[in-house]
């Protein structure tokens, strides 16, 4: 049985005082869950969140990282730096980074390798645009993104990669993929991993859905057999809404 991983992506929201308040509340709400709870927060909040989450079952992640360990990369943060303060997860290749910051599949692959080299768990985002979906290219796009992100990893690393299927047209729009469509996409990703790395590895990979997940639609999505969790944007900003998604099976 794969564990469900419910991760929040705060994006560029939440000042440190808001972050501390949210995590303090959330910790109480989610203390009895059997799901993995992760919050991926802005760099500026990381240390506060790690301190506040100590002794709780909330894990802290970053939203990006540079693939080099150190050097003349003004404004960047490396996987080694994240690890040094106790960060456990990192989102890599979110569609907003691919679109606004020109992140390519090659950069995503380098970042995934660097995350593993520094013992961070990568959450790799893949997803199609509306035009790609309407042209019938969804499965080709997302399986190619997955293959390129995982290129050159060991079997063990592949198995420990979290893939987040996030259709771009569903992000922040209030439009959600139907649970059947979302499950089908996650299944295709798993089949691709199985073809390259074998069924055993593919069976262990956590594949999340992301895109307008909220307390109303979470249960239906998270009950699907190939959806192993969620990557939640807007609904992760408030403890009261995020906890309902985390506790969907209560
Ligand atoms: P929303 O849940 O706000 O649609 O964002 C999804 C997302 O991009 C999470 O990474």
Q: What share of the residues lie within helices?
A: 40-55%
CATH topology heading? TIM Barrel
Number of helices: 12
Strand content: 15-25%
- Radius of gyration using CA atoms only: 17 Å
Task: Note the run of SSEs as H and E.
Answer: EHEHEHEHHEHHHEHHEHEH
Count of DSSP E strands? 8
Q: Structural class per helix/strand content?
A: alpha/beta
Give the CATH architecture.
Alpha-Beta Barrel
Précis, in short:
The chain is α/β, with parallel strands linked by helices and 250 residues long. The chain has helices at 16-29, 43-53, 79-84, 95-100, 105-117, 130-134, 138-150, 155-159, 179-197, 199-204, 218-222, 239-246, and strands at residues 5-9, 36-40, 58-62, 89-92, 121-126, 162-165, 206-210, 229-232.
Give the topology, please.
Blueprint: E1 5-9, H1 16-29, E2 36-40, H2 43-53, E3 58-62, H3 79-84, E4 89-92, H4 95-100, H5 105-117, E5 121-126, H6 130-134, H7 138-150, H8 155-159, E6 162-165, H9 179-197, H10 199-204, E7 206-210, H11 218-222, E8 229-232, H12 239-246
Parallel strand pairs: 1-2, 1-8, 2-3, 3-4, 4-5, 5-6, 6-7, 7-8
Helix pairs in contact: 1-2, 1-12, 5-7, 7-9
The structure holds 1,3-dihydroxyacetonephosphate.
What does this structure look like?
There is one protein chain. The chain has 250 residues and is an alpha/beta fold. It has helices spanning 16-29, 43-53, 79-84, 95-100, 105-117, 130-134, 138-150, 155-159, 179-197, 199-204, 218-222, 239-246; strands at residues 5-9, 36-40, 58-62, 89-92, 121-126, 162-165, 206-210, 229-232. It has an 8-stranded parallel beta barrel, surrounded by 6 helices. Helix 2 (43-53) links the parallel strand 2 and strand 3 (58-62). Helix 7 (138-150) packs across helix 9 (179-197). The longest helix is centred in the C-terminal third of the chain and has 19 residues, at 179-197. It starts with a strand and ends with a helix. Bound molecules: 1,3-dihydroxyacetonephosphate.
């Amino acid at each position: 049985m794969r564990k469900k991983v419910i991760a929040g992506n705060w994006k560029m929201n939440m000042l440190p005082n808001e972050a501390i308040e949210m995590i303090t509340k959330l910790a109480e709400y989610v203390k009895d869950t059997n799901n993995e709870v992760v919050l991926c927060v802005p760099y500026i909040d990381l240390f506060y969140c790690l301190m506040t989450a100590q002794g709780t079952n909330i894990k802290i992640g970053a939203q990006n990282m540079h693939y080099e360990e150190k050097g003349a990369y003004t404004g960047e943060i490396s996987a080694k730096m994240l690890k040094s303060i106790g960060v456990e997860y990192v989102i890599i290749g979110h569609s907003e980074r691919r679109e606004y910051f020109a992140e390519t599949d090659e950069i995503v692959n380098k970042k995934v390798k660097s995350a593993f080299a520094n013992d961070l768990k990568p959450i790799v985002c893949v997803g199609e645009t509306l035009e790609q979906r309407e042209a019938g290219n969804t499965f080709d796009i997302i399986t190619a993104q997955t293959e390129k992100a995982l290129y050159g990893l060991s079997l063990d690393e592949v198995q420990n990669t979290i893939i987040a299927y996030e259709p771009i047209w569903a992000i922040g729009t209030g439009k959600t993929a139907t649970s059947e469509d979302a499950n089908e996409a996650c299944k295709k990703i798993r089949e691709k991993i199985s073809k390259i790395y074998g069924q055993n590895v593919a069976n262990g990979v956590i594949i999340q859905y992301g895109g307008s997940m909220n307390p109303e639609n979470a249960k239906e999505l998270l009950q699907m057999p190939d959806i192993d969790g969620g990557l939640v944007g807007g609904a992760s900003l408030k403890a009261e809404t995020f906890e309902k998604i985390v506790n969907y099976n209560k």
